[in-house]
Design the sequence.
């Protein structure tokens, strides 16, 4: 079943426009960075006024923009090269985006930790079905069968077939 599903995904894969995805995600993350920079500027005491958003805390904007753009570009390019859209693309893109703070700070531990941390978190998030979960797109019967797979059936022993009283009498 898994092999036929993978073959189906390969034959129906549509290439992503890496440049468009990068620009869209970069713009979204730039906006988020601008918001956080404005919050930082508001909470600090200084005499730069409203332009402090760009002059004092503007690096927050560029950091968010770079991380979002790196993630989108890597995910799109990985999906296009592999001809499939799965959790591995997100894990690879998360690793690439997580490297940015380490590169900026010239710190190998931060580079490796960011790669591992963001790669694992985003890979697991994508693998688990994003916000919809694993049961998204399944019929009610398939959902019920999947859930019943976790419930232990009465009369079936999972550890030892002997009862605790028979162990005590044998000693």
Sequence:
């Amino acid at each position: 079943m898994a092999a036929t599903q993978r073959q189906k995904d390969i034959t129906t894969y549509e290439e992503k426009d890496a440049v468009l995805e990068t620009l869209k995600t970069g713009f979204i993350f730039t906006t988020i960075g601008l918001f956080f920079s404005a919050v930082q500027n508001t909470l600090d005491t200084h005499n730069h006024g409203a332009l402090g958003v760009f002059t004092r805390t503007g690096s927050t904007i560029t950091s968010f923009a770079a991380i979002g753009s790196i993630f989108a570009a890597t995910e799109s390019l990985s999906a296009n090269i592999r001809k499939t859209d799965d959790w591995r693309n997100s894990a690879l893109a998360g690793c690439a985006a997580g490297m940015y703070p380490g590169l900026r700070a010239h710190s190998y531990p931060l580079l490796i930790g960011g790669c591992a941390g963001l790669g694992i978190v985003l890979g697991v998030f994508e693998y688990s079905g994003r916000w919809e979960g694993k049961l998204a797109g399944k019929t009610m019967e398939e959902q019920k069968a999947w859930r019943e797979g976790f419930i232990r059936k009465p009369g079936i022993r999972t550890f030892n077939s002997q009862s605790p009283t028979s162990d005590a009498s044998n000693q």
